[in-house]
Amino acid sequence: MPLTLTRPDLIRSANFIAGQWSATPAARLAVTDPATGATITEVPDSGALEARAALDAAHAAFPAWRKVPAKQRAAIIKRWNDLVLAHQDDLGKLISREQGKPLAEGKGEVAYAASYIEWFGEEATRMNGEIIPAPLPGRRMFALREPVGVVAAITPWNFPAAMIARKIAPALAAGCTVVCKPAEDTPLTSLALVLLAQEAGVPAGVLNIVTASREKTPEVVDVWLDDARVRKITFTGSTPVGKHLARRSADTLKKLSLELGGNAPFIVFDDADVDAAVDGLMAAKFRNGGQTCVCPNRVFVQRGVFDTFAQKLAARVAALKVGPASDPASQIGPMINDRAVEKIERHVQDAVAKGAKVLAGGKRLPELGATYYAPTVLSGADARMACACEETFGPVAPLTMFDSEDEALQAANDTPFGLAAYFYSQDVRRIWRVADALESGIVGINEGAISAEAAPFGGVKESGYGREGSTHGLDDYLHTKYICQGQLD
């Protein structure tokens, strides 16, 4: 089906540098529909030249932008929010077409992205400093919060609107300027959002975006890593890439926000409301086809409710409608690319070979297309299986039985990752014990949908550091300057 938008000009096929849309270089990158493999359009396959031009523009724009009063910056960001919401249908269609998620989820992501833009537009006027009581007479001491400088944002493909909003909105609110490299699979949503930011009044050079293929991305990002003018890197993606960015940032001591891999546990205790736990897992696991960093990757169910939970979950999962975003009934869309499907298939085959039983799904759906995989429930999963130690990033829920609370906690924490964790219990004493014991930056208690613009989002251990959203998310784009004035007596 053709991609029909109310505003066709939202589909951009150029970089945005220094306030201008530039189609250079001549090399092009095809953006495809994961449901069909058909090309939607082509964007620049940029390299070092474009990355440096974007950085030059951001660096030149920073002195003026940081001096714009916070109230004026806030007004611009709020206009951006209004434009995003006004184009929710078009942006939702664009997300669904290039990323594959059902249209209802695509529109929902736009609203989620806008919530961050609105939040940080309001936070721009709340960057208060401190007056510090002086230890000596004749002094005044202050702590001021200032923008760090040029920010390089590297965003993932699974939430092409929300992730760019969650990074760019706080940067603009703080008074930083931005260079951005969106994921090669989903650059169109990011480009459309930048167009709306331009229309909202973001000055030339303050926000710059360059697109690049998987092969050319290191060339683009290395320019920003090596240049001391970039004072912060914000990245969402894999832990190995995050570690590389941290190492390469060391020479210029850049500030980093790294939201990296996850291996989230989902624990159901005997005293849980089983129906609520099934609802929570459906929301947490199968949103976006399981392609989210906070998806439960390991599901631990206590022996007393295991059979009931497994039966109810399998029935719900088997009833999910799989299909392209063009079908309004679709609840699970295609995976992002062939590599994603191959990993899912490998994990399921490995689990079955090691004794797991398929309760639902467990196979490709070639009648729909090469990138479709049936939502799957596995019973009898254990720590020997790849799905227990690698992030599957797909619609697969492996169930593991446990007996004691200590056993569940040990298994849940037995991972180098610590982004999100979930558990269901109605025992208030257990709730606080388990919440305290889980080694995770985010914990959902009797709740599967945990993300919100007012809440800090981020992990511990090898899931990264820094926070997005909330006042803590704004702090990551600021540094503190201490000022001491003497001889006042």
UniProtKB/TrEMBL annotation:
Gene3D superfamilies: Aldehyde Dehydrogenase, Chain A, domain 1 (3.40.605.10), Aldehyde Dehydrogenase, Chain A, domain 2 (3.40.309.10). Residues 26-483 form the Aldehyde dehydrogenase domain. Keywords: Oxidoreductase. InterPro entries: Ald_DH/histidinol_DH, Ald_DH_C, Ald_DH_CS_CYS, Ald_DH_CS_GLU, Ald_DH_N, Aldehyde_DH_dom, Aldehyde_DH_Superfamily, Succ_semiAld_DH. Its EC number is 1.2.1.-. GO terms for molecular function: oxidoreductase activity. The active site is at 259. NCBIfam families: SSADH. Belongs to the aldehyde dehydrogenase family. This is NAD-dependent succinate-semialdehyde dehydrogenase. It comes from Diaphorobacter limosus.
